[in-house]
Design brief:
The complex is a heterodimer.
Chain A (H helix, E strand, L loop, with lengths): L3 H7 L5 H11 L5 H23 L42 H37 L1 H16 L2 H12 L4 H9 L4 H14 L3 H8 L4 H37 L10 H10 L8 H29 L7
Helix pairs in contact in A: 3-4, 3-12, 4-5, 4-7, 4-8, 4-10, 4-12, 6-10, 8-10, 9-10, 10-11, 10-12, 11-12
Chain B lengths: L1 H23 L4 H13 L5 H12 L5 H13 L14 H35 L5 H10 L7 H15 L19 H38 L2 H8 L4 H13 L1 H25 L4 H10 L3 H29 L8
Helix pairs in contact in B: 1-13, 2-3, 5-6, 5-8, 5-11, 5-12, 5-13, 7-8, 7-11, 8-10, 8-11, 9-10, 11-12, 11-13, 12-13
The chains are: A mainly alpha, B mainly alpha.
Chain lengths: 311, 326
Amino acid sequence: MSTPDTAGAQHPDLTARQIKRMKRFDNPWRNPKLAWGAGLLLGIIAVGLLGRLVWNLDLVFTASAPLKLPPVGFENLRGQAGEWAYPLGTDGSGRDMLSLLIVGAPNSLLVGILASLIGMSIGIFLGFSAGFLRGRVDDVIRVLSDVMITIPPLLILVVFQAAYGDVSLTMMAILIACFVWQSPTRLIRAQVLSMRESGYVQMARLSGAGTMHIMFREMMPNLVPYLFGSFIANVTTSIVTAVGLEVLGLGPQRIPTLGRTIYEAINSGALIQNLWWWWGIPTLLLAVMFIGLLLINLGLDEVSNPRLRKL
Amino acid sequence: MNRFVTLFLTIFIAATLIWIIPRLSPVDPAEIALGRMAAGAGSVANSDTILEQLRARLGIDQPLIVQYARYLGGVLRFDFGLSTANFPTPVSALIANALPWTIGLMLVSLLITFFVGNLLGALMVWEHSPKLVRVAIPAAMVFTSIPPILSGLLLMWIFAARLQWFPLTGAYGLTVTPDWSWSFVQSVLYHGFLPALSIVVVTFGFWALGMRGLMITVQGEDYTTLAKAKGLRPRYILYRYMIRNAILPQITAFALKIGLLIAGQVLVERIFAYNGMGKLLYDAILNQDFPVIQGVSFVIILMTALSVFIVDLVYPFIDPRIRHGG
C-alpha cells in the first residue's frame, strides 16, 4: 500500500482530491452503499442479540397483555392508547410486538444466510467439477442447472411443506438451498473454463501444483468478489422464498418469524381493523433488510465494475 | 434439439418431484379424508373398511410403479384427479376457471414493468435526460428489493382499507355477472388495478437496474459515437441505436423472470383474494387438497418452462447475430 505522497508522485496529473476519491473507491469498505447496507443488516442482528439480553422475551409466549394494543403514541379503533410496557403494541392474541420482532427478524435473516451458504457450497463443488472434469459431468450439471432455474422453488416447497406440516428453521433453509445453487455453479464453471487456460494456472500446473491447490489457492481468490455478489443475491432470494411460504401459512409454525407474524395478521383481518402495526412493522423490517441487501449488492457492483463509479 | 430436451426434462423432473414429495411424507391421504368425514359426522363406523375403500378410490393401494405410471399418464392429459375438498370436481376444471385470471393479471403487469423499467433504466444513463429523472429513479429503486406481497399489503391498506378508493378483495364486483359486457370489464379492471400495481411497483426496478448496466456499455460503443458524429437527433440515437442494442439480454432475462413473477403473483393473489391460481393454491393448502396443490404447481411450472422455451426460439429473430446451430 502506498501513502498519499508516493501516490501523488505516481500520478502527477491528478490533484490530491482526485487521488483521495480514487482511493476511497479502491477500498471496498469505504464505498458508501456497501457500508450502509452492511450497517443496516448488522444493526438488525445487533438489536436481535442485545434485545435478547435486555427485553423480556417471555412476552412472545405469554399472551397476558391486552389484545391489539397500539404502539406508544397511537390509539387503536377502541380508543386504547399505547403503553410503555409494550412499546410497539401487541398482536391479536396479546403477544408483545417488540419481542416478536427481536426474535423474528434474526430468524428470517438466519434462514436466508444459512440457505445461501449451503447453496454456495453446492455451487462451488458442482461448478469446479463441471469446469475441471468437463465432458459428461459438465453436461449433466449444466442440464440440471438449466432445468432447476426454470422451476419456481416456492411451488415445490409448497408441495413439500403441505405434505410435512411443521418444519424447523434449519430444515427450511436446507430445502431452500436446493434451489439457490445454480448461479454460483454457473459462475464458477464459466470462470474455471476460461481460467484453466490462463497463464498463471498453466504456470502453477507446470510447477507441479495439485488440482486442489490450483482450485483453492490459485483460482478461488479471483472468484471471491463474484461469489460474494452471488451470495448476497441468494440471501435475498432465500428470504423472499421463506417469507412467501410463511405468508401462505407454511413454514415453521411455533417459531416467531416476520413472515409468520404477517400471516397471522392478515388472517385476523388486521387490514380492515386498522391494526397497522401488527403487519406493518414486520413488513417495514423486512423492507429494511431487503434494502440493506440491495445496497450491498449495488456497492459490490461498483467496487468490481469501475464503469459504474462515474454515475 | 437441445432446447427440446431441456423443456422435456424440466417438465418431467418437476412432475416427478411433485409426485415423490407427498409420497415420502408419513401422512396417509386416506386417513386425512377419513378424518374430515369423522369431523363432519361426529364418528365413523367400520373405519377400517372405509379406509380400504378410500385407498382403492385414491389409487394408493396399487404398487408405487403403477401409481407413478398412472400419474404421468394423467399429467399428459392434464388430468390430476378429483379435488378432495370439492369432492366430485376434477382438478382440471378448477384450474381452467382460475388460469385466465392469473394469465391476464400476469401479462398486464409483466408488460408494464418490462417497458417502464427498461425505458427508465435507459433514461438514467442517457446524457440528455432531465435532471429530475436521474435523481428520482435511483430513489425509486429502493422498492426493487421488496417482494410483491409486502407492497401489496401496503397498497391495500392505503388505497383500499383507509382511502377506500379501490375494492379490498376479489377479481370483480359482487353485483356484476361474468360476461363480456362493458360493466364487467370495467369491474375487472377496477379490481385488478391494485394487484397489478403492487407487482409493477416492486419489479420495474429490476429491469431499470439491468438496463442501466447495459446502456453504460452501449454508450461507449463505436456505433453510438458514429451516430453522434453524423449529427443524428439524440432521441433517435437513444431509441434506434442504444436501447435497441442494449435491450437484447433483457429479453432473455424476461423469460427467466417469469417463473419468479408467477410465484410472487401467487402471493399477491392470496392477499387480494383474487380468483386466480394463487387463491386456488391457498385454499388447497388450507384443506390439504393434494390433487389441487399438485395440479396448480404443475401448471405454473409448465407455464414457466414454456415461456423460457418460446423466448429461446424467438430470440434469433430479434437478434440476427445469434442463429441456432450456426
